[in-house]
Design a protein that fits this description.
Layout lengths: L1 H13 L25 H7 L3 H24 L7 H5 L10 H17 L1
Length: 113
């Protein structure tokens, strides 16, 4: 619904913008920790496989599409709390405008570093 989308866009526009220029301060001293190299077998147990990553990506896309449909068809005050919790981690993918805003914040953050 176009009216609903305009409302969401206005709410996104009302979000505070990230500061454009930040300062980074570094400590005069630092501590370094070293670790022994893990075996390939241990790494396979610790890290996600390409199959795991593909499944995660597929599940994430399905979640985004499902939640977008919920938001487009249900008044906000009627969306159950547990449904809103499913948006955690995919918030920036829920709208194109919010994704653009997230990418802008990420770029600003990287420029500071």
């Amino acid at each position: 619904d176009a009216g609903r989308r305009r409302t969401i866009d206005r709410e996104i526009d009302a979000l505070p913008s990230a500061p454009k220029k930040l300062r980074v301060h570094f400590s005069e001293t630092s501590t370094m920790a070293t670790f022994e190299k893990s075996s390939d077998e241990e790494n396979q147990r610790k890290w996600s496989s390409s199959t795991d990553r593909k499944r995660f990506r597929h599940d994430q896309i399905a979640d985004v599409l499902r939640m977008r449909a919920v938001f487009e068809s249900t008044p906000y005050d009627k969306i159950p709390h547990n449904e809103l919790c499913r948006c955690v981690g995919i918030e920036s993918l829920m709208s194109t405008k919010l994704l653009e805003r997230t990418l802008e914040h990420r770029a600003n953050h990287l420029n500071v570093i």
